[in-house]
């Protein structure tokens, strides 16, 4: 058996060589930085380095648990992520189902291109775009509101509207791109099922409900589990480019908090503690989501 495996390895050296760049990337940029986790258990001093900084044990974690500011940030993160999962996760699925029903290929490709394009714009560009569109003094949205007799709304500096703005802009940017996965899953469904359903007199809606949705159910479950694993991220880059101190109450999330504390206040130990807490919770959420999916839906990643 060992001889067979060694022979198989030698015969496919070129294939294994292709793994080297990917493995090197993982080792250098994913596993090697994990050494920095020890900062969470130190009173880290940037001039003394990790080796010269004193150890404080779990003091940073106690500070984390008793921090009112962090509790507010943690709550904001959960709320924003929950909104995005509930309101945005179904959108790419619906978009993929609608595009699958389009008969004219030129129209289908045109729509796909249009909805994909925002994904390739950075959040810096999109934030600048929406700052102008939603401007209370000259933005097109508020101009329309004033034309209908309403009062201008400060979407980006009003705590009542800021979270909704985040959800909308995130959906506008990523919905089309996320639909690609579901479109690919739909393309993998056996077309004979649709032909058989047509012979039986099934309508388009019935085909969608009884063939398409069950056919892409494993993909939906997989993407939902992965999305749950990113529950505590809440698109830090998006919020970082759109928020300001006025909306910290509702818009400050774990990622932006780590940035403010780590770089702004240079409290590297506490920011590393927050980041480690984030990673551990994300891992547990993936495990829990996979377990619940396997138990109730009978589909899971492993």
From TrEMBL:
It comes from the Bacteria. Pfam families: BPD_transp_1. GO terms for biological process: transmembrane transport. InterPro entries: MetI-like, MetI-like_sf, UgpAE/MalFG_permease. Residues 74-289 form the ABC transmembrane type-1 domain. It is found in: Cell membrane. One of its GO terms (cellular component) is plasma membrane. Keywords: Cell membrane, Membrane, Transmembrane, Transmembrane helix, Transport. The chain crosses the membrane at residues 12-31, 78-100, 120-141, 208-228, 268-292. It is a multi-pass membrane protein. PANTHER family: BLL4140 PROTEIN (PTHR43227). Belongs to the binding-protein-dependent transport system permease family. This is Sugar ABC transporter permease. The lineage of its organism: Bacteria, Bacillati, Bacillota, Bacilli, Bacillales.
């Amino acid at each position: 058996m060992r001889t067979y495996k060694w022979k198989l390895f030698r015969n496919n050296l070129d294939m294994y060589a292709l793994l080297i760049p990917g493995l090197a990337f993982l080792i250098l940029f994913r596993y090697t930085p994990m050494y920095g986790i020890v900062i969470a258990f130190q009173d880290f001093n940037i001039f003394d380095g990790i080796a010269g900084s004193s150890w404080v044990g779990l003091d940073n974690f106690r500070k984390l648990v008793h921090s009112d500011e962090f509790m507010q940030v943690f709550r904001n993160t959960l709320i924003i992520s929950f909104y995005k999962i509930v309101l945005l996760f179904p959108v790419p699925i619906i978009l993929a189902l609608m595009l699958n029903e389009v008969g004219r290929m030129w129209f289908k490709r045109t729509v796909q291109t249009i909805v994909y394009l925002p994904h390739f714009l950075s959040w810096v560009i999109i934030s600048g775009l929406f700052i102008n569109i939603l401007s209370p003094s000259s933005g097109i949205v508020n101009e329309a509101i004033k034309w209908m007799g309403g009062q201008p709304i400060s979407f980006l500096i009003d705590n009542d509207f800021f979270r909704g703005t985040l959800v909308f802009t995130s959906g506008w940017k990523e919905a089309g791109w996320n639909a690609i996965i579901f479109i690919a899953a739909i393309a993998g469904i056996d077309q004979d099922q649709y032909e058989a359903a047509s012979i039986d007199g099934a309508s388009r809606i019935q085909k969608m409900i009884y063939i398409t949705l069950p056919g892409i159910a494993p993909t939906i479950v997989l993407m939902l589990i992965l999305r749950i694993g990113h529950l505590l991220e809440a698109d830090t880059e998006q919020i970082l480019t759109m928020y300001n101190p006025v909306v910290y109450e509702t818009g400050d999330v774990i990622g932006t908090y780590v940035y403010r504390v780590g770089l702004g206040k240079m409290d590297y130990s506490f920011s590393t503690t927050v980041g480690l807490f984030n990673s551990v919770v994300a891992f547990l959420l993936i495990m829990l989501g996979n377990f619940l999916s396997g138990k109730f839906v009978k589909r899971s990643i492993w």
